[in-house]
Write a structure and sequence with these properties.
single chain, alpha/beta, Rossmann fold, Methionyl-tRNA Fmet Formyltransferase, Chain A, domain 2, 2 domains, seven-stranded mixed sheet, six-stranded antiparallel sheet, 17 strands, elongated
Length: about 325
């Protein structure tokens, strides 16, 4: 079977590698143009491009697939199927109709739940106990095409978007290489999605990193895990930015400190008190923290170098102090 693979981030790499490993003829890879990344804004290729080049596969990076010339380029490759995994562009009807077996997509949720751009993060943020992957036959609607196959996966209490995303990427890759031959042989009947059960999730934005300490502690901890590694979880301390790399909820804590106040609590695991932040309900224990421009530190080491952190009011204006 002759394939075109469309994908961009690391999440898509296991699917591409699985297709190659299982002997599918990946004739071409289409991915997003190289973009500047990191603080140095160094232009780098996408993870999918790097994986394709390692395998000697032709790579195409059009800014858009709109236009007759782009469609003709894809047509000239003569694909039997197009596989799409986190590509980052909407496919129009002219592209969807090109391959005889259509275009299939690996989506990291149990569709019709969590359609959209950030389903892994949304699953953690919403406190779901399980999610999964769906292999979908694409149409012009966003994540709304009929389902070819699905698998369920648990969400663990310490999962971040990075850990859950890695598991779902490999689960989706395995399901993909199992489903394609059965789809080609006519052994899979596409199942329409139940529109009445559809939910949606929006893309994450950089401003989502700012912690609202008035929220309940369990919600804050879930949001921060959902946003690891990006956009992260941060707050202001006076005129400085503090990034929280690991947090744990203490929902049963009660005290007079207003939300955002850095406090100490008796530890549940050691003799040394925990450093925490009071929230709208409970408190959030800090395990690892990073000042802007500095290296990450365990909270004990951070507090030794920044003793004024205890008692500070995070997210307040410079000079404001906590009152109890």
């Amino acid at each position: 079977m002759r394939l075109i693979f469309m994908g961009t981030p690391q999440f898509a790499v296991p699917s591409l590698e699985a297709l190659i490993r299982h002997g599918f003829d990946v004739a071409a890879v289409v991915t997003q143009p190289d973009r500047p990344v990191g603080r140095g804004r160094i232009v780098r290729p996408s993870p999918v491009k790097e994986a394709a080049l390692r395998e000697g596969i032709d790579v195409y990076q059009p800014p858009t697939l709109r236009g007759a010339d782009k469609v003709e380029l894809l047509r000239s490759i003569r694909p039997d199927l197009i596989v799409v995994v986190a590509f980052g562009q909407i496919l129009r009807r002219a592209v969807l109709d090109l391959p005889p077996l259509g275009c299939v997509n690996v989506h990291p949720s149990l569709l019709p739940k969590l359609r959209g751009a950030a389903p892994i993060q949304a699953a953690i943020r919403e406190g779901l106990r399980e999610t999964g992957v769906s292999i979908m036959l694409m149409d012009e609607r966003m994540d709304a095409g009929p389902i070819l196959a699905q698998l369920t996966a648990p969400i663990f209490d310490d999962d971040t978007a990075a850990t859950l995303g890695d598991r779902l990427a490999h689960l989706g890759a395995d399901l993909l290489v199992d489903t394609i031959p059965r789809w080609q042989a006519g052994h899979v009947v596409p199942r329409p999605q139940d529109e009445s059960q559809a939910t949606y999730c929006r893309p994450l934005r950089s401003e989502d990193a700012i912690v609202d300490w008035a929220r309940p502690a369990e919600e804050i901890a879930r949001i921060c895990r959902a946003q690891t590694p990006w956009p992260g979880c941060q707050s202001t301390w006076g005129e400085r930015q503090v990034r929280f790399l690991s947090l744990e909820a203490r929902p049963d804590w009660t005290g007079p400190a207003p939300p955002g106040t850095v406090i100490t609590l008796p530890s549940e695991t050691s003799r040394r008190p925990d450093v925490a932040v009071a929230s709208g309900q409970g408190a959030v224990v800090i395990r690892q923290v990073q000042l802007a421009g500095k290296r990450p530190l365990a909270i004990d080491a951070f507090v030794r170098g920044q003793p004024g952190f205890i008692g500070a009011r995070l997210g307040s204006t410079p000079g404001e102090t906590a009152t109890t």
